[in-house]
Design a protein that fits this description.
heterodimer; A: 511 residues; alpha/beta; 6-stranded mixed β-sheet; B: 304 residues; 5-stranded parallel β-sheet; globular
Chain lengths: 511, 304
């Protein structure tokens, strides 16, 4: 047996009763692996596994080309069964969104924030076994597994109307407002066979607390009293409010300045000719072309022996054209021989990634930051039109941080830029380093960096922040397709950012 | 249909989305709904519920799902393989676009749809005819359908060309009111426990709404749109700076459908005001520094 807290045990028992909610086994300890293995084994062969390689067409019902009968898709079968996601963090957003429409999901990941956003509310409860040293009893149980060790399951009491409103009240207290999560939590509570108070504790421990700890966008996680200010991404939608000055505990900080009305943003120079990529491709256009099994435009067909999965249509067409030569032509039956089989090449252009590095330090005066925001928003808009992904790196305070991870949603980038306060130091080197780490995951030719800074770096890893920043910029320039450094304080960005002139060598473009 | 469908009238809140769907059910010429908003707000439940409602009322408008993973063979239609294998015939096997003709084509997570499929859809939606010239097949069939798209903008934006194809746009948000949230969960749990019983409870309301739609569909053609109202519509579109003429046409049709649903005898300016925001929201020009709320405020001022 694996040692769990009372709340976690209640949730696991509720899962065993067949509760239709999502359960995430988190953590990387041996215990988490053991619990995962045990739960998957209990499900048996009826469970439906979805991996990053699961074809998107397998999710929905499709006609079998050979017999004409309709084969039910994963989503139909999962309505009464369990979906198992062994590597939930590796799913792309399309697969995650499809998986999220199932009600009973068992998932494994290191932590909740690793999981694609569409899937997060579907994973109702999070159970992370404590990473303590395992006991000898546990090790023994691992060596000599006994069958049928599960404790007898009691029938839980039905959920009354008062219980239900109490439950929603708990979620609301934690700033969680999501109808999907509400429903999952209610289905979970229905299956907990314990007194009402213990039910609530279990919900609080496994549903609410893991979501509170996760604070994606905030640069300073240890804010003293954020109980009054729920996480904006999880709280109920309200008109975007500027965070109150001083809320982040930085005395020198000024509230966000509104972006200036539009002006022409300096354009990024034309990209170099793209080539075929091997790194993680992004959807979109303008980047290198990527081959894909199921999505994208159809390219030529090739004999199956050249690789790929068979394309029924192409194979049948080849076979039909060869029928007159075959002895069976007289019988009226079509004969397909192995040499008829064809596979189809598909390709789609991959997208570009735009990394915006915004210096929001104290040295960026009032007017500079407004102009910087305006230029940044213009670039975000262009990126949207080009269907590119955008990431925002902010240089402010002690360390640079990733305010918006690569996304195609302009709203996220837009909101992060608008609500950006200024003040504190300029960790430019850190910001460039973060940008180049981010760029490394993608094809270098498909990444653009726009840095908006006055170039006055004063925080760095070494003694000379200015030199560190120059070095980091040189490294970044070598790693990505295009770099544009703009000094927003100068008129139309014509002058060089002070101190960074020397690093403009190579492929970095300065305005 | 083996899986039970949640009744349309049991969906709590989301009135704007429901209105948009009803307007389209009355007049398919409006050209669809784009519903963007928070996850888990019952967007797909509501759309599927509409399909069920229309089916039980006997209105011939199928709701066809276009799944994210659909291939273009499946969408456009292609060579009928079983016919080709069984008796060596070249026959056309219709795809989803053919199934959706005269009804609704529903795309969940429309913003995650493969760009290539979006191009295909735009092409067919523009002409109302599906021409298939490939794989040795040459086939043409009419494909007029109402596009319904839903998605979460957090995961990616929609392409502007596709956005304009949707007649109406609505934003769906999570309901903050605690008692309503509780009621939503309560209804869903009741439906899970006893789908037949739950559906039976709402059968009367469903029948009444279905009859209202059917009556509005019958009344639609006779409903007069006075010149004064038309002028008001054009003025409103010019003031809003709406791009293209689609805005005027959609607004006129939506106002007429609204009046038909309200059993009115003529389309008035009030009907126009009621649907103006749904029509113009995604068509007014916007600057990069404007948020959704700015657009809403601008439109509210304009309509008032």
């Amino acid at each position: 047996m694996i040692t769990l807290t009372t709340g976690q045990r209640d949730v696991v028992q509720a899962w065993r009763r067949g509760g239709r909610f999502g359960l995430l086994i988190a953590g990387s300890s041996w215990r988490a692996d053991a619990l995962w293995a045990q739960l998957v084994a209990e499900l048996g062969p009826a469970a439906i596994a979805v991996s990053p390689a699961t074809g998107l067409d397998a999710f929905t019902a499709r006609a079998d080309p050979w017999t004409g009968s309709v084969v039910p898709g994963i989503l139909t079968r999962a309505a009464s069964q369990t979906l198992v996601l062994g590597h939930a963090a590796g799913l792309d957003s399309a697969r995650a969104a499809l998986a999220a429409s199932c009600s009973r999901i068992l998932a494994r990941a290191h932590q909740l924030s690793d999981i694609p956003a569409p899937l997060q509310p579907a994973l109702t409860a999070l159970v992370e076994p404590a990473p303590e040293r395992s006991s000898s009893a546990e090790l023994n149980a691992q060596l000599h597994p006994r069958s049928g060790t599960a404790a007898p399951l009691h029938v839980p009491d039905p959920l009354t109307a008062a219980d239900l409103s109490g439950l929603i009240g708990i979620l609301n207290r934690y700033g969680l407002a999501d109808h999907g999560l509400d429903l999952g939590a209610a289905r979970l509570a229905q299956q907990i066979a314990a007194p009402e108070a213990r039910r609530r504790d279990a919900i609080e421990e496994t549903v609410c607390l893991p979501r509170r700890r996760q604070d994606p966008a905030s640069p300073q996680p240890e804010e003293p009293n954020d109980a009054e200010r729920p996480n904006p991404r999880e709280s109920e939608p309200s008109p975007p409010q500027d965070p109150s000055p001083g809320a982040n505990g930085d005395a020198s900080e000024t509230p966000p300045e509104p972006p200036e009305p539009p002006e022409t943003a300096p354009a990024i120079p034309k990209p170099p000719r793209s080539r075929t990529s091997t790194r993680t491709p992004l959807p979109g256009r303008g980047g290198p072309t990527t081959e894909d099994q199921s999505r994208g435009r159809r390219r030529r067909t090739v004999p199956l022996c050249a690789g790929g999965s068979p394309d029924v249509l192409a194979s049948v067409l080849i076979a039909l054209s060869r029928q007159p030569l075959r002895s069976s032509a007289a019988t009226g039956r079509v004969r397909i021989l192995p040499e008829d089989l064809r596979s189809r090449r598909r390709a789609h252009p991959s997208g570009r990634l735009l990394i915006l590095v915004v210096d929001a330090s104290g040295s960026m005066a009032h007017r500079s930051i407004r102009r910087a925001k305006s230029i940044a928003l213009r670039h975000v808009e262009t990126a949207y039109r080009d269907r590119a992904h955008v990431a925002v790196v902010i240089a402010r305070g002690h360390t640079a941080y990733l305010a918006v991870p690569p996304t195609r949603s302009i709203r996220q980038a837009d909101h992060a830029l608008r609500s950006l306060p200024t003040g504190g130091g300029t960790p430019l080197a850190g910001a460039f380093e973060l940008a180049s780490r981010l760029a490394q995951r993608h094809d270098a030719a498909g990444v653009d960096v726009v840095a908006l800074t006055d170039g006055r770096a004063n925080i760095g890893p070494g003694d000379d922040p200015q030199r560190d920043a120059e070095r980091a910029l040189r490294q970044l320039t070598a790693r990505v397709g295009r770099v544009l450094v703009v000094h927003p304080g100068s008129i139309r960005g014509r002058s060089h950012p002070s101190g960074l002139t020397s690093s403009s060598a190579g492929r970095a473009h300065q305005r | 249909m083996t899986t039970p469908v949640f009744p349309f009238t049991a969906v709590l809140g989301q009135n704007e989305l429901k209105d948009c769907l009803l307007l389209n059910a009355v007049d398919p010429g409006i050209g669809g709904v784009l519903a963007l908003g928070d996850r888990g707000t019952g967007k797909s439940t509501t759309v599927r519920a509409l399909g069920q409602l229309l089916e039980t009322t006997g209105i011939p408008a199928p709701v066809v799902d276009l799944p994210l993973g659909a291939t273009e063979d499946r969408v456009l239609g292609s060579l009928d393989i079983s016919a080709a294998l069984a008796d060596g015939q070249r026959r056309f096997a219709p795809g989803l676009l053919s199934d959706a003709h005269g009804g609704f084509l529903y795309i969940d997570e429309v913003n995650l749809l493969d760009d290539y499929l979006v191009d295909l859809l735009l092409d067919v939606a523009a002409s109302g005819i599906n021409r298939v010239e490939r794989d040795g097949i040459s086939h043409t069939h009419p494909a007029r359908f109402v596009l319904i798209g839903s998605g979460n903008p957090e995961e990616g934006e929609l392409r502007p060309q596709l956005e304009d194809r949707f007649g109406l746009a609505t934003t769906v948000t999570t309901i903050a009111d605690l008692s309503q949230r509780t009621e939503i969960v309560r209804r869903r749990l009741a439906f899970d426990a006893d789908p037949e019983g739950f559906t039976a409870d709402y059968a009367a309301a469903e029948a009444e709404l279905g009859e209202r739609i059917a009556a509005a569909r019958r009344r639609l053609e006779q409903l007069a749109v006075p010149d004064a109202t038309l002028e008001h519509i054009v003025r409103l579109c010019i003031d809003a700076g709406a791009v293209g003429h689609r805005a005027e046409i959609v607004l006129m049709r939506a106002a007429r459908a609204y009046a038909a649903l309200e059993s009115a005898h003529a389309v008035t300016e009030n009907d126009v005001s009621a649907v103006a925001r749904l029509t113009l929201r995604h068509r007014v020009p916007r600057e990069s520094y404007e948020t959704n709320d700015d657009i809403e405020r601008r439109l509210t001022r304009l309509v008032a």
